[in-house]
Structures are given as C-alpha cells and as structure tokens.
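ESCALATION

Customer reports they have been waiting on this structure for their group meeting. Please prioritize. Original submission:
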Amino acid sequence: MSQALDPLAFPLAGSQLIEASAGTGKTTAITRLYLRQVLGHGCHPLLPPQILVVTFTHAATEELRDRIRAQLTAAAGFFGDDPSADAHAGDFLQRLRDAFDPVEWPDCARRLARAAEWMDEAAIFTIHGWAHRMLREHAFASDSLFEQHLVSDLRPRQMQAVRDYWRCHLASLAPAEAAVVIDWCANPEALYQSIRPLLGGGERPDTPLPPAAAVAAGRRRRAAWLESLTAQPWVAWIAEFREAFRAANEANQIDRQSLKPANVEGWLKKLEAWATASEPYPLDLGKGWERLTLEGLAGAWRTGEPPRTQLILALPELKAALARPPDDGRLAFFAHAGDWVRQRFEADRQRANELGFDDLLGELDAGLAGEGGEALAAMIRERYPTVLIDEFQDTDPLQYRLFDRIYDIAANRPETAVVMIGDPKQSIYAFRGADIHTYLKARSACGERRHTLRTNYRAVTGMVEAVNALFAIAEDRPDGPGAFRFRRGDANPLPFEPALAAGRDDALIAPAPGCDAGQPPGSAPALTLWTLPEPDDGKAPAKGRDRDAMAAACASHIVRLLNAAQAGEAGFGDDTGWQRPLRPEDIAVLVNSRKEAALIRQAMRERGLRSVYLSDKDSVYATPQAAEMALCLRAVAEPDDPVALRAALATRSLGWTAAALDALNHDESALEAMIEHLRRLRRVWRRQGVLPMVHDLLHGFKVPARLLADPLAGERALTDWLHIAELLQQAGRGLDGEHALLRHLLEAIEAADDQAAGDAHQMRLESDAHLVRVVTVHKSKGLQYPVVFLPFATEGPQSGTGDAIVRWHDDEGRVRVSGHNDAEARPAVAEAALAEAVRKLYVALTRAEYAAFVGICPRKTLPDSALASLLGDRPGDVQPTTGHWVIAPAPDAGAERYQGPAETPATQPGRRYTGTPRVDWWIASYSALRDRRAAVTTAARTETVLADESTPHRSAGAATAAEITICHRLPRGAATGSFLHDCLEWATRQGLRRLRDDASPLARRVEQGAQLRGWQDHASAISDWLWRVIATPLPLNDDAGAIALCETAAQVAELEFYLGASNGAIERLDTQITAATLGGAARPPLAPGKLNGLLKGFIDLVFVHQGRYYVLDYKSTWLGPDDQAYTPATIQAELLSRRYDLQSTLYLLALHRLLRVRLPDYDPDHHLGGAISLFLRGIDAPGAGVHVERPDPAVIDSLDRELGHD
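Update from on-call: job pushed to the front of the queue and completed.
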C-alpha cells in the first residue's frame, strides 16, 4: 500500500520508492530531500560529495545541480538573517526551520551555504559517469585497469569483428549453405543488426551452432515438420471434397461467378501435389486458404449447406501450422555468430585498452560479483551513504543489479538510504534497454515502503480530469487488462491512480473549430479527440491518405489559432481578463517518427508557418544532409572522378542545375578549374581535418546563403551539415585517410535507421526562434507545452516481431530469448509493444498545460493502437465521461496562411559598397595570368591553377604496338594527371631514398589507386613507370650533371606559396620572362594589367642537390604515341604554347624569396639551381622528358622588384 509523500516526514533510511506522476514536482521533491540530508533532519548530516544523485542524461545532471544549489542558497538565506528570503520562503522551508531550535538556525545557515558553495563537487552523475568514477577510484578492488580510453561509439570495432566472422565462417561455405545464410542476412551489416541483441549482457540462446551445422539442423527440423503435416490422408480428403463439390456444382447449388470451379480444381491440384511430393516443401494456396473454408464456401452456396468434409475442417489448422514453422537454424547460427563476435570484440577492445559506456557498467558489475565484491560494495556505501536515483522507471536489469549488490534493496539497511524516484507510467525507453519489469521487481523489493506524488501542478484542472477520465475507462473495464495492460486476474502491479489537480488561475481562450466568424472566443475544452469520416465502403482509406488529411486539418487549425491570436481572439486569460496572445512557441506537435514529423511540417510549411523538429531517437546521420555530405566527401577524396564530381554538384545544397552541369561537360577549362578546387579542399582535409574542409566547401559554394534563403527548411539543413562535420572531425582522429572516414560515414548512414541515436548523434535544435515545436514523444518527456497536438495517435506500435532475435518476458517476468518466428514470443512481444504505446500516449497527453488535440484516423492500425486499448476498437464512438473532453470531427483543411506579426530580423542585411575600390587587390595564379579570364565558378574564383593536359602534338613517325608502353596508353586528361601527381606526392612524403631500397610500398599504393579507376590490370606497369620516374637520372644542364630524384639530398612535395605583389606591371613581367627563357622564342603574350595582391601556387617538388635548390613540375601531357614524340623541339613547343615558362619563373621567384629569409648566406648564383619541367610520359625518351630553365639571377631580382618587394 502506497502513502502520500511528505517531504518532511519521508524516512531518509533504508530503501524507499517514490512514484511521481507527471507534473507532480518530482525534481522539487529531490531537492527537498537533499536539503534535509545536508541539514541532518531525521538523519545523519552529509555534505554534497557524500550524497550520490544518479540520473540518465548529462542535461538532467546539470539541471539537478542548478536546482539543488538554488534551493540550498535560498534555504541558507531563510535560516540566516536575510529578510528578503522570508518573503519567498514556502511552506516547506517554514516547516523545516520550525523543526530546529532557533539557536541552531545560524549553524544550519552556515552548513547550507557551505553545501551550496560545494555543489561543483557534488556527486551528481549519470549512471555511466558514476560507474566510470568507481572504476577509476577502486581499480584494485574492481580488478580493472588504471588507464582505459573511454570511447563513445564502439560500433566500428564491433563491425570489424562482424566482418572478421563473415570472412572466417561464411566465405568458405558450400554454395547451398551459403545461399541459406545469405537469405538470413545478406551482408555483414545485416548480420550485425541481427545479432546486436546478443552483443551486450543478458540472456542468450543456449544452442549455438556454426553456419553449416545450423543450416543442416534447420533442414532436418523443417523436413520432419513438413513430413508430419503431409502424413495426414490428404489425398483421400481431397477426393472426398472433389466429389462433393462436383455434385453440388451439377445440382446448381454454387454461384460459379463467386467461386469458379476451375479455381477450386487448381487449389486442389496444388494441395494434392504438395501432399504427394517426394521432398516436402511449403504450401501456398493464395486465396484458396479463405475460399476453402466453411465461411468461404457459404458465401458461394446458393442453396443448402456447404459440405463439411474432413478437408474443409483440416485446412484452417494446416494454414495455422504452416504459419508456425520450426526454427530453420538461424537462431543457432545467430547465437554462434553473437558469441564469436562478442569474444572477438572483447579481445580487440581490451587489446586497444578501450571502454564503451555499457562496458563501464559491465566491468563494475563484474567487480562487485568477484572475490573482492563485498569489500568494494562496502567502500562505495561508505563513500555514498545516501543515493537518490532519478528516472528509475528507465533502469535496466544491469543497472538495478549494481545498486542491489551495493545497497541490498530488499534488506532495507538502516545505515544507508536508497531512494528510487520514477513513474512507471512514463517508462517508454525500451529501445534503449529500459525494462519496466526491472522497475516492478524493485517495487516488489520495497514492499510497503512506497510513496506517491499525485498532485499535478503543471496542467489546468480540466486537462488533469480529462486524462484521468480517459485512462479510467480502461482501468474500470472489468474483463480488461487495466489501463496499462498489466492486470492479470486480481493482481495489477501497475494500476492507474487518478492524479489530483492543483489547478491554474488562467485558461486557454480560443474560438472553437468551425465557429462563425465574429463569434466571441471562449474557454477551450482541455482535450479534443478529432475524427475523420470513414470511407463509404467501410474499408480503411488508402495508405497514407488519412494521415495526410489529419496533418492538413491539424496544420490548418494551428494557423487559425495563431491568426486568431493576432486578432486578439486566442490566448491566455483569467478572471481579471486577457493576459497574452497565443504564440507559435506555445504549441507542440508530438509525433512518433521522423516521417510523421515531415508530414506535419510540410502541411504547416504550405500554410506559411515555420516549425522546428526535435528528436532524441533520430540520428543526424538519417537526414538528407548526411547523404549529401557523403557525395561531397567522395568528390573531394577523389577529385578526378567526374561522376563523383557531378553527383556532388547536383546535390540540393551545392545547387548546380542540369544546365550548369551540361555546360561543365563542354568546358574543359571550367572542369579543370573545378577539379583543382576539389584538390585544394583535399589538401585542407589532409592537413587540418574534415571540419575546416567542410567549412571551406560550404562557403566556397555559398551554401549557407543558398540554404538560409529558404526560411522554412534552410536553417535545419545548415544545422545538420555543421553537426555532421563536427562528428566526422572527431571520428577522423582514429581513422586513416579520407576513404576510411568516408566508409565510417556510409556505415553510420546505413545504421542510422536501425538504432537509437546516441547523445552526440541526436539531431540538434536548429533555432531558438519563436517557432512551433515538432517533437517526438520520447524527446518531449520531461517537457511541457501550453498546447499539444497529437495528430497521429492511432498509429500501431512498433512491436519488433520482425527482428531476427527478440527478448521478451514470460508471464512470470522472466527474460526469454527467441527467434523471430517463435509462436510463444510473438504475442508476448506484440503485447509489450502495445503496453509501451499506452505509456507513450500517457506521456504525450500529460505534456499539455492547457489543451490537447488528438487525431483519430480510420486506418487498419486503429484497433491495435494505444487509443483503442483505452477506449475500444472504435474510439470515436465513445461517449465522453466528463465535460472536459469532447469528440468532434476534425476541422476543415483550409488554405488559410499564417499571418505572423511583423518582426525585426535578428540580423540586418549588410550594406553594399557601391563605390569604386581605390585598390584593385586580387589573388592571382599562373593560370590566371596566362588566361586572364574570369573564374569559371563561384567556388574556384581566380584560384585556377595549371591544367597539364592540352591538345597533343602528333609525332611525325608511326609507332608499332610493341613500342607503345603503358605511359603512352593511359587515358589523357586531368584524371590521369591527378592520379600520377598523387602517387608521386605520396612517394615523396614517404621518402624517395627509402623507396630506392624497397619499392613495394609504391606498388601497393599504385595498385590501390588503379583499382579505384578500373586500371588494376595495368597497376604493375604503372608502378614500374613511376619507379623509373624516381630512379632515372635527370639531366640538369649545368655542372651538376644528372641526378635521380631518389638520390637527391632532400625533397619537399606540394610546397604552397603566396607571393605579395604591389602594382606590378604584367607587361613588364612578360617582357622580362620572355627574354630570359626558352631562348627568347615567340610565345602568346599576356594581357596587360596590374598585379596587386597575392600570387599563389603549389610547387610539385622542391629538392636539393649539391647545395643547389631546384623546383620541379610534373607534366602528364600526352605529346605523341611513343618516346620519339618527346624531343627537345616538341617539348619546347608545348612549353611555349602553354606559357609554362611563366609558371617555372614564378616558382623560382617563390623559391628565391623563401631561401632569402631562410638561408643566412643565401647567394642566388650559388643556391638557385633552376626550374625543371618533367614530362612523365617521356621518361624513356633520350632526354628523359626533361626541360631545365635557369634564368639569370639578375632577372629574378628584377622580377622581385617589379612585384614591389622592398
């Protein structure tokens, strides 16, 4: 028998249970008990580090800490000499102070003030945070390691163990067995989803078998089962019915249009073939299962009764038996896979010295169960004599076992205090492991030591009484399972007890749906059930149509209410009059899923009403932005893949139209510029991480401006983009390379719909603006809203009966583990899902402060819904039992749009500069100077750089096929050039001297890149070619002779530079470079202009040889079909036509400036070696495809001065 909670008389000793209904002040009760414990009122006084408070989220710990600190501070003032505190003191503080002698009040005030100051050290933790601290502080006693890395997401390591199992046990299966297993789980991801229930703690199947053995055992069981079914005299029964049906047909007793004899004969032949088959197989009669029954035949029989033959009587039993096949072996297979993966994962985790959040609880539990368990429990009890466990209805068996082992709940130890606070009616987190049966076990352990909080301070009286009436209908039904479906006979461990209403002074005043214009508003009913008209044929409406209609009706009514508020006709008032109008942020629409949220948000969007969506179950990886991010990351990781590039550009966020993409296909310069932009982003990714790269990507393509131009959905999309980028930045720290992070993202996207989102992955609130809230019921728990809409209340519960493995409770409350088709498990799992759906409905309705609107859709799931569980299969026909709730037709879905108040935007548009810039400052590059044309895209601006590929010069001589090596046969274009550049850059970063001794790493790198491009057959030849590039002596055309790159003293790859320029004349630069390079030969001139800003670029390679510094640029240009095409003349012609002389001279100038500040004794005559253009396809030509330029150092100095260097 429970008793009403009196916070002053509550015993702070032993084990106690507080059941606090929604809105009854649970947190206030906790702070008051904490206050008493600090003062030692009825107990021994304790300080904050000695009082353990456990809750389930970080946000809740912070809220509790702040609330307790505020209560301690207020109480300290009240006990002290602060006269202002007296005015705010409530009845509780008054009674508490009266319990002490006035002489003690100053000491009490000092104790309370000291406790308030100590709250930063208070022992207020999440369950996992507390377990982590216990493992660290009691490492010896718990037999745990001193230093372990806490990892928030161990799924990638689990997935690796699953892939290992797949390779070890499934790759070698015979084709027949493999086909069966593939039917159970098509890939490692599907296997992981199937065995996830077995990877944690708890019960497991006790018959694990390896894959082949599991398939064989399943076949034997299935064959025996089918043989038992076919053992009946089906042939004789068929002949009996066939004769009876023939006679009735001849006697014209049958309506042949309703039941065609040809169809009947077809069904009988199918059944006959099944019964006489040498190898049993499943039987499917289609509509024959319905027509070959007494009811089915009666509908086609004109006169007399249909024949009651043995076949007609046996077929329903046969159909039911076929619907309950024996386990086909998958349960034993999944049990084997689960055990193997769990052991492999544990070994890998321990080897890496890592801990997941659930591992924290498991390790502490193991420590308490070990040899030193009692000593560890005693140390924890001594450290925390009092523990307050908040939200106890969300506990699971492991969490309860921890506290039970430490504090012995049933023993009711007087030297400790264990207070469990929760509301079983709000236990809705089964998908996270919460187990209401564990709560009921603790409830039983506490016996009579149960206390209740029943007075609702949140809602108006009408709202409380309406909810009471709704649940009382089911509770009072004598032959039913009770409101919360736990009643079995006379026993009901979870009864519904009506809440008491403290009431509010104000009320919602609004026009009723459908009232005439100008009719004065009145006090709105607290609870309104909306019904949609049923179709004329009595059948459920087409899938989704009823939900669309209810969403439209709900959105229209919200808009009417808000527009009425603008006209002064809807808002909140009391006996004294109007207080304030209804605002969008006063309204919450509660939904079950992201799909429902999308429906209602779209309906509001069509009516000009903005909303914000919040869920604690939906992962940000399940959003469209995650898929767009994957496309963009692939494009950046592989910038030379044109398919990946176009897929990224075509995303909604980057916003390229089909016309723009088609134009890109026909503009080689634009394509090369875009590819170079992606390469630059990849360099940012590699050097700084994925988050800075995503920021550059978004701003380069003006994504924020494009998204925020959509006032209804843009902010949500941008929030998700940035959230995903932050998560990837964190994940990237433990992953090697871009493709590993991309795979991580793809796996997260694939898993997003199959598991609850962790705290880090939950979608964030995109705005604090005044918007309608669209919130999942799970996320709304603990929150409250003035007005609540629940448009999809008649959706059926998600039972989980389709899962490969299910955990369920039998009638005794014991946990059972079964396969997906277990006949005993299916109804139990469905019943548990319906019971939780009823509790979800209770949570949803008790969020409302003033009014709630609930939609009833006439759909197939209606009889299985929580509302039907309370009100019967036809909730819309129930007669309300109180005047505080009504049943009415759903309001018309009109086209009225929201007429919101004129708001001053939080940010004003920036002023535009309309004058003429006094300084023409810009960032230029070699190609910008060469082409002197506008940037091809917003993203690339003027940052285009060298595109090596050009229209090739043809060799004068013909070449035989044997003379054409791989370097001449690889495709032309930027993709090939980037691949070769990437391989050579990688080789330089690895160390060319090291590759000289062992070239196998280069071969592996080339093979990986070649496979991505479909060149795997040529990987070995490409590797040999690039090795020749590294190892072939290159002529330097000076006294240094020739040198192979792998023999050079030092190398730096992809050296980035920025050269300052101040009003440099481009014509004079061009004149000096032309005179100093390529023998002064004629070449295309540069357009005149001024250089004022920065010159930027990347040098492929800088190396040192004999004290001289050289710049080298790789050219993958195709000049002809064989080595003979790479003569000095053809190379020079290519250099002239593409103005590579400009590029090499600018590279030398950049190196000149760098060496001047880095080398104390820098002398350009001695240190500046020259600029090398290395044509990779000509490495086997007589001159090794090399051209070297070494302009006079005086020319370099002159160019430096021209650019404005002091």
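Sent to customer with the following note: Confidence is low (pLDDT under 50) at residues 514-520, 755-760, 933-964.
Escalation resolved.
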